[in-house]
Specification:
Length: 277
Amino acid sequence: MKVAVVTGANKGIGFEIVKALCQRYNGNVYLTARNAIKGNAAACKLKKLGLNPIFRQLDVEDEESIKRFRDYIAKREGGINLLFNNAGVTFDECTQLFSKEAEKVVNVNFFGTLHVSEILAPLLRYGARIINTSSYFGHLSNIPSASLRDRLASRNLTVDGLCQLMNEYLSDVRQNKHITNGWGDSPYNVSKVAVAALTIVLQRQFDNDPEKRQISVNSVHPGYSKTDLTGNTGTYTAEEGARPALFAALDAEGLRGQFVWENLAIIDWYSPNPPSF
């Protein structure tokens, strides 16, 4: 039996990804969430529609939680075909604790995506696909510093090197040097650029591994969607915002280390300017 896993799926775009997979995908669909009560409620909501997701608790900030999920899937399913790294948080611009909030955003959006990908990697089956939720703000051009952009775009960048960059950023935040040093004023932007960079780095790793070179990793920009993350404002519904991720997972062929835009176009992450909204 094929297996799809969606993180951060109790609401918003993640919920809509699960819903669509239950309708379209011939396999078991795992709806995961940090909060078990909310996750179970989301799964029950879909079951009332005649769909059959499977809920499992998964906190992307907690490596032990990820490992428990890995062990459960290994025993019950034996592997994973689709992995949607959708869990994410935004940045509260009104907070008085900028440093703490920035660390939370980077830990969930970047390090959470990294840890889920690495810990579940041994379960990825032949031809598996990883889809990482990035953002319009995940385009490389959203980093003001040319030297930082060069480091993020380097063909020699490794996972360790990318982690070092994110730790440098958090260190700069703690010292209030992040703007002076060229990161810009948005932790959310930095975290989502890092997710897109991680997509490319992981794809390069898989390409160089004879046992995993059939695995693909792509990132997506859902568009400005009406979810809790955006204060329920936006151009798209959450269902419409799920389209790029579903396209990358189920419809597109030959995508490897690419960035899928809101209109399903494949865009150049390295270009000086992102496409317009």
